[in-house]
Specification:
This protein is α/β, with parallel strands linked by helices and 203 residues long. Helices cover 33% and strands 29% of the residues. The protein contains 6 helices and 9 strands. A 7-stranded mixed sheet has the order 5-4-3-6-7-9-8. Strands 1-2 form a two-stranded antiparallel sheet. Helix 3 (67-74) runs parallel beside helix 4 (86-100) and helix 5 (135-148) runs parallel beside helix 6. The structure holds S-adenosylmethionine. S-adenosylmethionine is lined by residues 33-34, 37-38, 40-41, 62-64, 83-85, 88, 109-112, 129-131, 133.
Length: 203
């Protein structure tokens, strides 16, 4: 995967569908979307590759196999990669090791969890790719993101135009945040491309 002039090797399961677990779905409707590398992750990684992140305390939400975290780590950020699937964290940590030779700290973090001790107010940068595909995610993330940020911090959210994203951005604006949006074209195999918006959200 070429990002910002460098090639990254991202390992992920061959078929996400093979990982569907009915018990998981019954519990909280979770599906193993983490196992694919989504165009939004590629767009977000491209944006992070263009930033000087030396020493920046950052957290990725819904990291999946972790390309944006890996790029941020390479750019010098202190990144914590999070997801609600343990297997996603294992893949993200592995991908960091093979691309940067650095250790990527990871943590299980469910956006709907009540106990967020250890996470709150700690981060200068929160980033996430394609996490707003359900309306209930918009509400949870609009509550969570401001609580994770330290004063003066910012969030980068990459999204291909999902319904939940508009709802999320509307709440953030109502809470006094400024949103600047950039459209990036992500080229996929077969000469197809997808437009992805990278939204920067700050006070
Ligand atoms: C569409 S995938 C995107 C994965 C990765 N960010 C990418 O763009 O390639 C959505 C990600 O959000 C995670 N996720 C969904 N609901 C979550 C929740 N309630 N708490 C934490 N992570 C969640 C999934 O496990 C998955 O990794």
């Amino acid at each position: 995967m070429p990002v910002g002039g460098e090639d990254y090797r991202i390992v992920h399961p061959e078929a996400a569908e093979a990982l569907i677990d009915e018990a998981d779905f019954e519990r909280d409707e979770r599906l193993p979307y983490w196992a694919d590398l989504w165009p939004s992750a590629i767009a977000l990684a491209g944006r992070l590759a263009a930033e000087d992140l030396r020493g920046v305390r950052a957290i990725e939400l819904g990291c999946g196999v972790g390309l944006p975290s890996v790029v941020a780590l390479k750019r010098g950020a202190e990144v914590l990669a999070t997801d609600h699937y343990r297997a996603a964290l294992d893949f993200a940590a592995y991908n960091a090791r093979i691309n940067t030779a650095k250790r990527l700290p990871t943590a299980l973090l469910d956006w709907h969890a009540h106990d967020l001790r250890g996470f709150l107010g700690r981060f200068e940068l929160v980033f996430a790719a394609d996490v707003l595909y359900e309306r209930r995610h918009a509400e949870a993330l609009a509550r969570l993101v401001p609580r994770l940020l330290e004063p003066g911090g910012a969030a980068l959210v990459a999204d291909p135009g999902r319904e939940g994203c508009a709802a999320f951005l509307a709440v953030m604006r109502r809470s006094g945040f400024r949103v600047e949006s950039e459209r990036r074209e992500v080229w996929l195999s077969g000469r197809r491309s997808v437009g992805v918006y990278v939204h920067r959200i700050s006070r």
